[in-house]
Design goal:
Layout lengths: L4 H17 L5 H8 L3 H14 L2 E2 L2 E5 L4 E5 L4 E2 L1 H13 L15 E5 L5 H10 L5 E3 L1 H4 L6 H6 L6 E6 L7 H10 L5 H4 E5 L8 H23 L7 H26 L5 H13 L9 H7 L6 H11 L5 E6 L3 E6 L2 E7 L3 H16 L3 E3 L6 E4 L1 H13 L4 E3 L6 E3 L15 H7 L6 E4 L18 E7 L5 H12 L13 E4 L2 E7 L1 H54 L3
Parallel strand pairs: 5-6, 5-7, 7-8
Antiparallel strand pairs: 1-4, 2-3, 9-10, 9-13, 10-11, 12-13, 14-15, 16-17, 17-19, 18-19
Length: 561
């Protein structure tokens, strides 16, 4: 054959993918889809048969020259072929577990503790030829990113969770669960294998695991507090993971205990049955579907898409630190939230991920931080813009740029262009008007930590500047006076309101009221000081320029040619 060894691997992978997607296709169609000549395709099929990557390929002599014609209706992947496909998925630059599926076979992510490797191997063997299976030992290449692999659990069609005592005490295992739970319908694609040492079916058993993670967080907090701040950045990331697990493990265990989990001797057969029942998607590609159904995007995803499409560069940058999560579009801040605003942060993260999964944006740096619009993304953005009949707005609050649903009202933060004149006339200091009762949240009250808390929004007398919002949040996080019930990190400023996400109405009345007034006063005072400094600086600069120009003019008058 005329292929180099590396190119040969790629061509073999491509042919296997096409054959497994539609084994009933005749060889001319397969050759066309794989971009190969007839002789090249036949050579590769002979190779697959000879090497044992596919089984049940039937050959028959046909034609004048009695060429071996392949019949692929019964072709199936072997264990050796599955290992080759996995190797290529980890090796090929164009394919990895974070990208779209390469086959019509469903994908299954196995989440397990290494103490239960034998169970995971049984599941993988049972699914051979029926699904593309992802597990850490097989799909993470040497020096590959463990975090990227754990995050990829949300990309797959199904997730098999092998739940045991070691699993429920492992940060790595439960972090995969936390990633899965970010999706609203995560429970629909999860299949649980509950081993005998996992005591989750009684409330005392579940409480034991919640207590374990509470203790882990406490010990880690004490350790971090005893170390220099400059040496604890990575430990703080570990603490954030542990806190995330502590706050959500109760909900997870309740879901698992409530599920109708098959007995151990029947569970693998049940997994095979469920995976095999997946219908092949229609010929219409995901991208084409979304071209015809733009309303499938969330408001957040649509806003990102339209704003990016209205800029010259169409560049989206997503960043996360220990304290905040932000999105900037075309080099302008778009979203900036404290990390403890978990629900809002999750919405915007999901918006980015949905745009990526639907092929509307593409990862420019392969780190999940820098994105650009695809041609399809531009098309869908135009369709969304056509549905918004309002005049175009460039919002000074959140930097959204695009048409509005209502004339002059930003679909993101609610900023109204008609308010700017009244805001400019009203130079009174900002103050809190009252609670926005219709927007007060509701507690989950599911017994998990923090489930009794909810969102309380407060109306401001006018829309403050972004600078004022930053000053208020900074004051709230570190106020000069506060009660023992103070909750730093729960405040944000959105449009003309302060949002306390993680409190109660009683706490606002009894504990937070004085602190709120104090922080508003601090923000007013500091912003006024900054504005005065900027005014004086501007005056001094104008004076310096004027003196310079006067001096230039004086000397010019003295020069005689």
């Amino acid at each position: 054959m005329s292929f180099s060894p590396l190119e040969m691997e790629k061509q073999v992978f491509k042919v296997m993918d096409v054959v497994l997607s539609k084994p009933s296709e005749r060889w001319p169609i397969i050759a066309e889809k794989a971009g190969l000549e007839k002789e090249q395709l036949f050579d590769i099929l002979n190779y697959l048969d000879r090497e044992g990557y596919l089984e049940n390929i039937d050959f028959a002599r046909d034609g004048k020259n009695k060429i071996r014609i392949p019949f692929l209706e019964n072709a199936a992947i072997t264990e050796k072929g599955l290992e080759f496909m996995k190797k290529m998925q980890g090796k090929n630059e164009e394919i990895n577990f974070n990208k779209a599926k390469t086959s019509s076979l469903p994908t299954v992510f196995i989440s397990y503790n290494w103490d239960n490797d034998n169970v995971a191997s049984k599941v993988e063997m049972a699914l051979s030829g029926k699904a593309i299976v992802y597990r850490d030992k097989k799909n993470i290449p040497n020096w590959g990113s463990l975090s990227d692999f754990m995050n990829s659990i949300r990309k797959q069609d199904f997730a098999v969770l092998v739940i045991s005592e070691p699993y429920l005490k492992s940060v790595a295992c439960l972090f995969e669960v936390m990633q899965l739970m970010k999706d609203e319908g995560w429970n629909d694609k999860a299949m649980f294998i509950v081993l005998k040492d996992a005591h989750i079916y009684g409330p005392l058993g579940r409480a034991k695991y919640i207590s374990y993670w509470t203790e882990q967080c406490g010990e880690l907090e004490k350790t971090i507090a005893s170390l220099p701040a400059s040496a604890t950045s990575e430990l703080n990331l570990d603490l954030r993971k542990a806190v995330l697990i502590r706050d959500n493990i109760g909900e997870f265990l309740t879901k698992v205990a409530d599920a109708s989990n098959p007995d151990l001797d029947k569970v693998i057969r049940a997994i095979i049955s469920r995976v095999s029942s997946v219908e092949t998607e229609s010929e219409l590609s995901t991208v084409e579907k979304n071209k015809k159904q733009p309303n499938r995007l969330s408001k957040e995803a649509a806003s990102i898409l339209i704003t990016a499409a209205n800029g010259d560069m169409a560049i989206i940058f997503s960043s996360e630190s220990l304290s905040s999560y932000g999105i900037s579009i075309n080099n302008k801040a778009f979203v900036n939230l404290p990390c403890n605003q978990g629900r809002e942060v999750a919405c915007w993260k999901n918006a980015i991920e949905s745009l990526l999964n639907l092929g509307l944006i593409e990862d420019k740096d392969y780190k999940g931080e820098l994105f650009g619009l695809t041609p399809t993304g531009y098309d869908v953005a135009d369709q969304y813009a056509a549905q918004m009949n309002g005049e175009k707005l460039t919002c000074p609050q959140c930097h959204y740029s695009g048409p509005t649903i209502e004339n002059g009202v930003c679909p993101i933060c609610g900023f109204s262009a008609s308010d700017t004149k009244s805001d400019q006339i009203n130079d009174d200091p900002i103050h809190i008007v009252g609670v926005i009762t219709e927007e007060v949240g509701t507690p989950r009250n599911d017994g998990t930590r923090g489930s009794a808390l909810y969102k309380v929004p407060l109306r401001l007398s006018k829309k403050p500047s972004n600078r004022w919002g930053d000053l208020f949040v900074a004051a709230w996080n570190n106020p000069p006076r506060f009660t023992t019930m103070h909750r730093p990190g729960i405040a944000s400023v959105l449009g003309d309101k302060i949002v306390l996400n993680g409190t109660t109405m009683e706490e606002v009345r009894d504990c937070h009221l004085d602190t709120l007034k104090l922080c508003v006063d601090i923000a007013n005072t500091k912003e006024a000081q900054i504005l005065e400094q900027e005014r004086l600086k501007k005056e001094q600069e104008e004076l310096r320029k004027q003196r310079h120009y006067n001096n230039v003019q004086k000397i010019a008058d003295e020069i005689k040619f």
